[in-house]
Amino acid sequence: MKTKLNIKSLSRLCYIINVSKKQLINIITFFEKKCHRKNITTKKGKQRQVVVVSREIKLIQRNILAILYSIYVHDAAHGWRKGRSIKLNAEKHCGNPVKLCLDIKNCFPNTHSLRIRKLFEEFLGCSPVVSKYLTRLTTFDYALPQGFVTSGAIINILFKNMDVVLSRIARRNNLVYTRYGDDITFSGRYISKNVYKKIKYTIENFGIILNKEKEEFSEGKSDPLITGINCSGKYPKVPRSYKRKIRALKHKATITNNPLQKVRLVREAKHKELFIRYIERS
Q: For 123-168, how does the pLDDT look when each residue is reduced to its tens digit (9 = 90+)?
């Protein structure tokens, strides 16, 4: 794994992301016209706005993603990484009686494009002009957008130094630390008030805003879900509420008179059952 990209010229960038210089300049010039915002419904039923790009830009972003994946990120990062998953993230905390769960508020939109340009130029060793073009291709409306395949990988690189410091705090206090995207988790047998404060101060000192509404601290009485997974036992489990949803979907499928709705409900129930088997398979 590399620590820098070291792309110094536009011609080299064009070669790496497989576009001509003329094509690249054209894309940059009309970038906004090749993107549009779209509202989608998440698996949890919430509305989320994403930015959809043209096929041409999507291919370029996938090539950029390939080079971003070559950059070393901290081992504590589990989201937006090949070979990692919410299950692996949750397993790290299984059986630990004390858990601290923190959430980064509006992680993507609160990450300004100036910060991304600084990342490419100062941290990843690209020239100013290459950093400018890479920033333009990976941001929208001066921020990291939901919907770009590159956004998660950029966050992992951007947060590497924070992960290093938080892992050091965890190690010194016999704790486990992981970060799954914008979800930060510490667990162990004891977290003192001073360590609790130090963790939050460290995160905020990196210019990150925490979502106070999603902050959870447990000493075993009401174990919080970690990325939606129950980690109170030796192995990760899907919460009972998730399993109840499957029974509700199957019931709806038996009483509906709409064939298309029946197919959709059965498919959704099967998808959830596969997820349960994956999470609970030891």
A: 999 999 999 999 999 999 999 999 999 999 999 999 999 999 999 9
The CA distance from 224 to 100, in Å, is 8
Tell me whether strands 47-53 and 216-218 are parallel, antiparallel or unpaired. Answer: unpaired
What is the tens place of the pLDDT at every residue in 32-42?
Answer: 999 999 988 77
Look-up: residue for tokens 């690249």? Answer: 24
For the whole prediction, is pTM greater than 0.85?
yes
DSSP H/E element including 177: strand 176-180
For residue 49, give the H/E element and its range. strand 47-53
Nearest Cα neighbor of 129 from 23, 29, 13, 20 is: 13
Query: CA-CA distance, 128 to 117, in Å (whole number)?
Result: 8
For residue 147, what are the CA distances in angstroms to 20, 35, 55? 25, 10, 13
The whole-angstrom separation of Cα 245 and Cα 170 is 36
